[in-house]
Design goal:
Layout lengths: L18 H9 L3 H33 L5 H49 L3 H5 L3 H43 L5 H44 L1 H6 L3 H27 L3 H21 L5 H12 L2 H28 L20 E10 L2 E11 L4 E6 L5 H8 L7 E6 L2 E2 L5 H6 L1 E5 L9 H5 L9 H10 L3 H5 L18 H14 L4 E5 L7 H14 L4 E5 L3 H6 L2 E6 L2 E6 L1 H7 L1 H13 L5
Parallel strand pairs: 3-8, 3-9, 6-7, 7-8
Antiparallel strand pairs: 1-2, 1-4, 4-5, 9-10
Helix pairs in contact: 1-11, 2-3, 2-5, 2-10, 3-5, 5-6, 5-10, 5-11, 6-8, 6-9, 6-11, 9-10, 15-17, 20-21
Length: about 600
């Protein structure tokens, strides 16, 4: 079974071994609608083929010597009844496929969303958000269009083709010659058409993803584009991507223009008419039967003409499904380990000879230290020394390559991932907030309805209450996406309030107070020290006041801990710590 960091108990399992199996497993979930569609499609085409037969019989009645008004009335009412019944059955068929198509799209969207949530950080690091959005929106819509009207039309067309051949055979076996030749040629040309269309459809979906990814990146980084005056450059880049997509669209049109069945149908209609005339001349066919035959052959226009458009929709849907399956089938190195260890943490944290690499590039090498419950561990070192990566191993954002990490004497890989992460809070310098109310952002990490008093208390402890109440709507204020309507200090105080609300047993602070002035920071640190008494804290910071307060300081260089100890111990024996301390002492003097 594929590893996932998260799975939903309500998620339906689908066959992801291939694109076709995946689509079929989705369709089979709606057996009722599928069965209803097949039955109504058979009835619709049976009734549709009956109409020319009855019409031909009407000609024989009219041309006969014993024609009477009651006979003509019965024939007319029969045709009217067939048309009305066909319309009702066809409505049922279309409604059933609409439910099927929209249900498939909804289920596929849910499956993809849960699948993306279950992927680990390494997967998301190498993905372009715009391309993921294209797959989650446009490709999913292509799936719906593939079913309705794409697959719906194709099934209807082929049932119509078979039904027409059956009715022609029942009318007169000799009349099957022309339609059978057409059918063979139709299938051959259709195979060639799909073979040409498939690579173009795949390229179109991929290029649309790249186009969307480029657009998303520019919109997310719009401030950088404007600061550097790169609007013209980005316009040219977007135009090049759009031109490539347009070229593929034109190529798609060229493939459709080479669609041959309509030409084959025209030849078949002419040949069928002459064949029928010959049989009438030989008295092997009546005028009414000739009319029925021409009417039945005319029904071949539906599969011949509609297949061009319908197969284009199906190919686009298959290409979209292939891209979705590619995401779902990407494995993750981590598993949620739902049956793993679950208990309240005490906060005893041990690194034993831990090594870690990004894509074969070593980041951490033989890291070992012990943080006792309630201790504050400061991590210092130059940029790129592996400080942030070290903290991401604690809650298994990444997994160690060698060694092990123990929490309360249990390997983190043996913990249930949910139990592990729910008891560890991380506050980073790059704060992620959502375009929701302030109250919802603070309560986000709890994942359930929280009493307003608790949210307000967490905000007060994080020194956020006063600025929140300065807004017109207070805690119900909707903040902009990623918190762009707030200052850096305000965003970080909301993140701290969010972390405090979870009542964590281990807290990771990755330069989390860098955008907060010293006076406010002192108040926040007092609140954090009071609330985190008895909890373990990993602290990455350049603030000397915080470093001095740490129970243990880790000095890192190029992924290794070169020394560890208290501030006084390191200042006495570690030259690198002395340089770091001197640098901080000059660069970050306390504000006056």
């Amino acid at each position: 079974m594929r590893k996932q960091e998260f799975t939903s108990i309500n998620t339906q399992q689908y066959n992801q071994t291939s694109t076709t199996h995946w689509i079929i497993s989705h369709i089979l979930r709606y057996k009722g609608y599928s069965t209803l569609f097949i039955i109504t499609t058979l009835l619709t085409n049976g009734l549709n083929a009956t109409i020319p037969v009855v019409t031909g019989a009407a000609f024989d009645v009219i041309l006969g010597s014993n024609a009477s008004h009651p006979q003509l009335l019965r024939v007319a009412l029969s045709i009217l009844g067939l048309v009305l019944l066909k319309g009702i059955v066809e409505i049922i068929a279309r409604v059933s496929t609409e439910f099927l198509g929209k249900g498939l799209a909804r289920d596929a969207r849910d499956e993809l969303y849960v699948g993306l949530l279950g992927k680990n950080q390494t997967f998301h690091n190498r993905q372009r958000v715009g391309d993921l959005m294209a797959r989650a929106t446009n490709d999913i819509n292509q799936l719906s269009n593939m079913i309705v009207p794409g697959l719906d039309t194709i099934v209807d067309a082929f049932v119509s083709l078979i039904t027409t051949l059956v009715f022609i055979g029942l009318l007169h076996p000799q009349l099957l010659l022309g339609p059978c030749i057409f059918t063979v040629m139709f299938l051959i040309s259709l195979h060639a058409y799909n073979s040409s269309l498939n690579p173009v459809a795949n390229s179109m979906r991929s290029q649309f993803g790249r186009l969307n990814a480029g657009l998303t990146e520019v919109l997310v980084g719009i401030s950088v584009v404007k600061f550097t005056v790169q609007e013209d450059s980005e316009i040219r880049r977007f135009s090049a991507n759009a031109q490539h997509y347009r070229d593929l669209f034109v190529e798609n049109g060229r493939v459709q223009a080479r669609y041959l069945p309509m030409l084959l149908l025209t030849v078949t209609l002419v040949g069928a008419f002459f064949h029928g005339i010959i049989l009438v001349y030989r008295n092997q066919l009546s005028i009414g039967e000739l009319v029925s035959y021409i009417g039945l052959v005319s029904l071949l226009n539906y599969p011949a003409s509609i297949s061009n458009w319908a197969f284009n929709l199906v190919q686009s849907g298959l290409a979209g499904a292939k891209r979705i399956i590619a995401l779902l089938n990407e494995d993750t190195a981590l598993d949620e380990n739902a049956a793993g260890y679950k208990d309240a943490m005490h906060g005893d944290l041990v690194f034993e000879n831990v090594s870690f690499s990004y894509d074969q590039s070593p980041v951490l090498k033989h890291v070992s230290f012990h943080a006792k419950p309630g201790q504050m561990i400061a991590i210092v070192g130059q940029t790129g020394s592996g400080k942030s990566t070290l903290t991401k191993l604690v809650n298994r954002i990444y997994d160690v390559d060698q060694g092990r990490i123990l929490i309360d004497e249990v390997d983190v890989r043996s913990w249930s991932l949910d139990a592990l992460r729910s008891q560890i809070s991380t506050i980073e310098q790059d704060i992620v907030l959502f375009s929701r109310s302030i109250a919802e952002n603070i309560a986000f990490s709890v994942g359930q309805k929280v009493e307003h008093q608790l949210i307000e208390q967490a905000a007060k402890d994080a020194q956020a209450h006063d600025f929140i109440m300065s807004f017109k709507d207070g805690y119900e204020t909707i903040i902009g996406e990623r918190g762009v309507t707030l200052s850096g200090g305000q965003r970080q105080r909301l993140a701290i309030a969010r972390a405090l609300l979870t009542d964590p047993h281990i807290l990771i602070l990755d330069d989390s107070t860098s955008a907060i002035d010293s006076a406010t920071e002192d108040e926040i640190q007092q609140a954090i020290r009071r609330l985190l008494k008895g909890r373990t804290t990993l602290l990455i910071t350049h603030r000397l006041s915080q470093i001095r307060q740490a129970d243990l300081i880790l000095v890192m260089r190029q992924g290794e801990i070169i020394d560890q100890g208290t501030h006084e111990e390191l200042l006495a024996r570690c030259m690198m710590y002395q340089r770091i301390f001197a640098h901080y002492d000059i660069a970050f003097l306390p504000e006056l």
